[in-house]
Amino acid sequence: MTEAATIPLRSPARARLLWLVVVLAALLLLGALSVAIGTRQVGLDDILAGLRGEVGTIAQAAVSARIPRTVLAVLAGASLGLSGALMQGVTRNPLADPGILGVNTGAALAVVVAVAWFQISAAQSFIWVAILGAGATAVFVYAIGSLGRGGATPLKLALAGTATSIALYSLVVAVMLTRGDIAGGLQAWQIGGVGGATFARMGPVLPFLAAGLLLAMASARKLNSLALGDEMAAGLGERVALARAMAALSAILLCGATTAVCGPIGFVGLIVPHLCRLLVGVDHRWLLPFSALTGAALLVASDVAGRIIARPAELDVGIVTAFIGAPFFIWIVRRQRVRDL
Prior knowledge:
Layout lengths: L2 H4 L6 H24 L7 H8 L6 H34 L11 H16 L4 H23 L8 H24 L2 H12 L7 H4 L3 H13 L1 H7 L3 H6 L4 H23 L5 H13 L3 H26 L7 H20 L5
Subcellular location: Cell membrane
Family: Belongs to the binding-protein-dependent transport system permease family. FecCD subfamily.
InterPro entries: ABC_BtuC-like (IPR037294), ABC_transptr_permease_BtuC (IPR000522)
């Protein structure tokens, strides 16, 4: 029996509202910790001055640098959590995640090739290239996973995505080895992180994230219909191919744009939807916004943890999410059982 079948479709409205308050409060608290915690200790006066844009002291400058970093972590976490929920809804696959399905790596390879071979340097170009790479990889993995008897089962998609991700990562390394002059910067970006964020750097990606968010919210009811099966959805008047394409495009926009600015960050899209289903059920009208908020909270928490664990240095957020996500992935596989996938 799948996870979707064991969780009731509706949770009491009061419980959902309570969890909404809890998640929002946690996100606000984590945002405050992100601004306050770092290599340099800062006081409340420094935080308030930094929020006003003052940079007269080193502590105030540190706060001013942490604010855009926190905002980027919120945007990236929300986008990855939302894209994971969309991918799981589109494929009806509990293992779907931008990292596991290879979408992140496809976006990363496209960016690396664009930089190394075509000398692309404009931020807008990075975003388009990453989105195209993510889209092409998603189509390829789904096509491979659909071969043979049974169509695109969760296990076949996970195996196809993992194999594709390994192959694409090998190509990323091969390309970087031929360009020692840019390998250092690309290697740091390849880990996945939010350090060095600026509002100017985030500006070009915002329209893509906004478009992905709008498409995602418009897909919520359609994903509820798809969860009943393609035949039932069609019987209810849903245009199945269009519904799937809209939700998939939203996930690709969110994942590709986030990868362009942060690098490939894995497992957020796997962990968050499962956690949110436990809180609010499988109704995508609630699941999608909760996945966005919880993904934002998870990535901010991972960024703060990376600063604390390796102090005075830092662990990039992509490393922290990998430490969290790998055991979670194993737990899901054991819980679902391979024969049920």
